[in-house]
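User: Sequence in, structure out. Go.
Assistant: Echoing your sequence, followed by the structure tokens.
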Amino acid sequence: MRVAGWLGLPRLSIDPDLLVDPDVPEAGRLLVEALLAEVPLALLVRTMLEGSMAVAAACGPAWARKEQRLPTFTIALPVPAAASARARVAYYRRLAARQGAVVEDVLAREPAAVAAALESLFSLHAERWRDRADATPRFGHDEAQRDWYRRVVAAFAARGEAMVLEVREDGGLVASVLALLTARGVTMHTTAHRPGGRLVGPGHVAWLAALDAAAAAGATAAHLGMGGGRPGAPKTRLRAVPTPCGRLVIGRSPAGQRVLRIAFLLSRRRR
């Protein structure tokens, strides 16, 4: 059985969707019909469940089912001056300064600077997630994956669409954020931090600094990714907007879904 999916698996780390011209709203439905003429079933993970693909699947003769997972978060830029996250980060910076720490933000935009900052982020990310049960091997897990990211991020940087925001305490790296910019949007791709210094909440500090840098570069909206909406987390303090996200199954009929479910069960038993 042939099953369609989003391009990019297994390294998919954002929540993809269709971009449908508002002047041609039927284009999404036509694409879904063309897709199901090629395959009996599409299994689309990490999908916006209220997005264009979900709408297109519901408008045609296709059968569709939504399976909600963790929500994904977005936020309008610039972050308001009155946001609680901004006040908290300012407090963290003042507290570190009173203790004698020198905290500075270093923004990499040029290709060579982005490449160097990416290597530092690999190391910081590996240190932060090493031996953790909830670690997901999607970023710099091995040398082959790191090489893939080097080439992809370099291509973004060559077009001026990549940046790495580093927060340094007394010259040492304590937090880093890789962000990808396109048109008026920015995706906060990967972040890592090292707790335990005089700067409290280095991850919060880096996120806000990266969002401010993206806004200065012309971004008016940010995609913050799935999960992390617990109380006190950066996304919560930024008052980011949660959007339903999960798995979207589109088929010619419910029978295809039953076949796929049986196949998944058999696969799990074999593993």
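User: And one key feature?
Assistant: Residues 52 and 108 are 34 Å apart (CA to CA).
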